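explain this chain.
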Amino acid sequence: MHELSLIANLFEIMEQKAKEKNSKKITYVKLQVGVLSGAVPELLETAFGIYKKETLASDAELEIEKVPLKLKCKDCGALTIKDDLVLNCSSCGSTNLETLEGTDLYLEKMELEIEEN
């Protein structure tokens, strides 16, 4: 399950950002997960739940937004949005496609509890 290593890397980034902001607690995390990112959202949720124990995000809520594939046909120019891995143009059926969105996994938002001085 490579999702655990993805979450471990995510926690390194989140904890670094939290420390930069003088925060001792991460309360909310939102990830965007593309259909072709190579990560399974359900496994990311499980890995997050396992990894967050005894960290700054121990009580954090995780939200995962699934990002569909956005494809442009190089033959007819049509835009196609897909939630599956059947990669063909919805207009002409061509497989000569350019991927515009849906391949990334990234941290969209993180909410922190900031300590007052």
Remarks:
- Strands lie at 23-34, 61-67, 69-73, 79-82, 97-101, 105-114.
- DSSP finds two helices and six strands in the chain.
